[in-house]
Amino acid sequence: MLWDRTLILQNGILKANITREELDGSGQTLEELFFSVTEGLEPEAAAEEAE
Amino acid sequence: MLQVSHVTKQYGKVLACNDISFELPPGTVTVLLGPNGAGKSTLIKSIIGFLRYQGEITVDGYPNKSSEARRLVGYIPEIPALYPNLTVSEHLEFLARAYRLTNYKERAEALLERFELADKKKKFGDELSKGMQQKLNICLGLLPQPQILLMDEPMIGLDPHAIKQVKDLFEECARKAVHCWSAPISSTASICCGTARSSCRMAS
Lengths: 51, 204
Prior knowledge:
The complex is a heterodimer of chains A (51) and B (204). Chain A has three helices and two strands, in the order ββααα.
């Protein structure tokens, strides 16, 4: 893993600012977080979307 | 190290960045993700000082457009910004002079060697293939060894071999500075997270 922090932007708005440790603690992958943030998916649906 | 406070950038009626704030400490790698048109490039160009915006950006306490800050920040643009009438060597020399670098030649040679451009030193910018232009673009961004390196989708136009070269180099120097790397989720997933899973779907 190369990154320490991810910032997710959508439509000019900073939707997420999260460290890798925080993400690991949430049980989500980066892809799942991305979909949940940008598409408003629940974590379970985002996981399926990422499969 | 890098502080972005309430940055807003508007193009006419389009709000490209809306009240964005964050802070990046030294020795960290940040990936800036977002769909096309999310504002990633606008934010990076604001940080580098290319755009006017509302809000405040400081680098190591200096305003981002000050000469002190500019010496600390490097930038690898999405589209290589090369001069057609300068050779590969001249590009590196030009950048070294702009940053007032001394003893840069050994590092420049090493970068050219690493990115397989050592035999292209006398080629002009417009004689290089797109991938080679991007490699030179990356060499130019890395030459000054900036404290903060902003990369706007640096893998565009590179073949898988070159992507691995960039990734390896990035891993070596990642903890020595603040690195901020913008990317669509697809390439980041495969490069930063070691998985290409779902990359095709995510790219769409």
